[in-house]
Amino acid sequence: MTILFVLLTFLVIISVRYFIEPKSEPALESEIVAKPQPPRVKREYGFEIPQDYCFHPGHTWVTKEGLNDARVGVDQFVTNLMGKIDHIDVTGTDRWVRQGQKLITLSSGGTKVDLLSPVEGVVMAINDDVLRDPSLLTNDPYENGWIALVKSPDLKVNQKNLIQGPMVASWMQNNVARLNAMLSPSPALAQDGGGPISGLLLQLTPEFQQKVVKEFFLS
Asked: How far is 27 from 142, CA to CA, in rounded Å?
């Protein structure tokens, strides 16, 4: 009887504690799209080059996140050339894009520029913050200014077609040299070196704008 009494008392205590103790709140679900990790940045030839990023020849970038996830954006050459960006359009979510297909359209002062996807896959998410505030793209193109998250099953294969590693800085420098040659004798390079003069594209005639866009953005 004594043992039975002890067991009953123990069960009563557990039952009372269950009903009177506050229940812990369930853990909040993690965001579908986590904030990107700050990239390691190396400065070469006047350019800020994020490490472990791959670049499409049309000046978009991709960095791997997870097994098949790829975060996509545009590089500093684009943001310098266009200057203040007024509006950003992106292919809608759940859409399949091919590598080299139009993904992004940037608008600045009435000039629109189409930019190509660096990878093939399904657009899973779009950065609403950068759509609401395009200055994020201008001021922070490699982190908070990212454009879209793409599910890319063939990411490793796609990356083989992109510019990466030690080739990025020299490729950027070559682009500026070609731009200078196209616009000679007008200067295209900023006084402190690196990318083009901010907003340079808008200072060109429509004919020259088309030539620059076709030459450097491949669209």
From this structure: 31
- Name 17's Cβ contacts closer than 8 Å, sequence gap at least 6: none
Q: SS3 helix, strand, coil % of the chain, rounded to 5?
A: 35, 25, 40
Report yes or no: 149 and 116 within 8 Å, Cβ to Cβ: no
Number of CB atoms found within 10 A of residue 192's CB? 7
What's the predicted TM-score (pTM) here?
0.81
Three-state secondary structure call for residue 141: coil
Q: Render pLDDT for 156-208 as a digit per residue (tens, 0 to 9).
A: 999 999 999 999 999 999 999 999 888 887 656 554 556 788 899 999 999 99
- 168-173-178-179 Cα dihedral, nearest 10 degrees: 110
Residue of 205, 204, 206, 195 whose CA lies nearest to 46 = 195
